[in-house]
Amino acid sequence: MIRAAVAVHAGATSRVDDADELAEACTAAADAGCRVLDGGGSPLDAVEAAVRLLEDDARLNAGTGAALTATGDIELDASVMEGTSRKAGGVAALGPVDHPVSVARAVLERGRHVLYAGPGADRFARAAGFEPVDASALMTERSRALLHAWLERHEPPPVLDTVGAVAVDGAGRTAAATSTGGLVGQEPGRVGDSPIPGAGSYADDRRGAVSTTGEGEAILRAVLAFDAVGRLAGTEPQAAADAAIARLGDDYGGRGGLILIDARGRVAAAYNTPSMPWAAAWVDGERSNSHAVDDRV
Question: What pTM was estimated for this model as a whole?
Answer without folding.
Answer: 0.95
